[in-house]
Amino acid sequence: MLSRSIPVNLPNQAYKVVIQAGGQADLGSILQAQGLVKPGQKLLVVSNSQIFRHYGPDIMDSLLNAGADVEKCLIPAGERYKTPKTLQKIYDAALAHRLERGSALVALGGGVVGDMTGFAAATWLRGIGVIQVPTSLLAMVDAAIGGKTGVNHPQGKNLIGAFHQPRLVLIDPHTLQTLPRREFRAAMAEVIKYGVIWDAELFDLLENALVLDRVEALGDDLLGQILIRSCQAKVDVVTKDERESGLRAILNYGHTLGHALESITQYRQFNHGEAVGLGMLAAGEIAVRMGLWTEVDQSRQMQLVEKVKLPSAWPGDLDLDTVLTLLSSDKKVKDGQVRFILPQAIGQVIIHDQVPPAIIRGAIQSLQA
């Protein structure tokens, strides 16, 4: 049975990413073993109704058995609800449950729940603990690790946020059995991302897999390797650059254009992973046009995206002027220049802030349906 603990050795907040099959039912005892919960401690579990229906009762029982004083807060599901208005619901629940500085929030859900709960924890009483219990592959390999938290502004994704590291990340791969197939495929874009930016062996592993588009076809061994290698890649980068002063920016591969695509389609046409996949293909096309990497490697990336059955064509009716305008308001802009993460080889990327608009436009046009 899969069980692995990956240390995240940050100077101000060291913690562990625990990957444990069936681990959700043991959350209370896992927290007790690490000294992260004590009798009478107030905890607030934040989730949405769909996720909570599947996993909430076991989580609540486990925490109650550990002696905690536990309540829940259910928020709407979906990226379009990742707003300050929804955040207010978490604050209201924190106030009603009389959370103190020694209290903690427990994020039970996907990336939206994790990001919002983390930001609420970062800002309630100027900072309380947060425990991340991701239930989607996207959150497991990306959002739950590294301390990035936030909510969206109408003009851009995650413009309101804070760095706030969790006390623990608990990944239970059994929860993926109830993950909708579209959500699983979307998350595989982030897994492919780690192969391109950091781990060429992971990329090769994905290329050699017979099927990648549904979790039940992977088998426990391949799924375990995907989780461990992806989490380790994220941890490696975060521990070298906690607050994105340099290297950590490579984790945004595919996200610069992906966020613009999400925003222009009002978070309704593509989910996050699908947009990131299209953003990676566009970044790869930009890199080809700038002579940074080969058409062969771009083709390999395209084939993996299609193997996962993610969309590989940008909308044909997209207003490219609007895309370019949105890029200028992206949170990764520095000194007025949009920073792109561009691939040089499988497992190697660079940060580039001198990409001409004409090349961006041409790259997207070449991928439009």
Concise synopsis of the structure shown:
With 369 residues, this protein is of the alpha/beta class.
Describe this structure in words.
One of its GO terms (molecular function) is nucleotide binding. Residues 73-185 form the 3-dehydroquinate synthase N-terminal domain. It is an enzyme of class 4 (lyase). The protein is an alpha/beta fold and 369 residues long. The protein has 2 domains: 3-178, 3-Layer(aba) Sandwich (Rossmann fold), CATH 3.40.50.1970; 181-367, Dehydroquinate synthase-like, alpha domain. It is 45% helix and 18% strand. The chain has helices at 27-33, 49-65, 84-96, 111-123, 137-143, 181-197, 200-208, 220-240, 255-264, 272-289, 295-307, 320-328, 357-367, and strands spanning 3-8, 15-20, 42-47, 69-74, 104-109, 129-134, 148-153, 156-163, 168-171, 340-345, 348-352. A hairpin with a 6-residue loop joins β1 (3-8) and β2. α10 runs antiparallel to α11 (295-307) and α10 (272-289) crosses α13 (357-367). The longest helix is centred in the middle third of the chain and has 21 residues, at 220-240.
List the helices and strands and how they pair.
Elements: E1 3-8, E2 15-20, H1 27-33, E3 42-47, H2 49-65, E4 69-74, H3 84-96, E5 104-109, H4 111-123, E6 129-134, H5 137-143, E7 148-153, E8 156-163, E9 168-171, H6 181-197, H7 200-208, H8 220-240, H9 255-264, H10 272-289, H11 295-307, H12 320-328, E10 340-345, E11 348-352, H13 357-367
Helix pairs in contact: 5-6, 5-8, 6-7, 6-8, 6-10, 9-10, 9-12, 10-11, 10-13
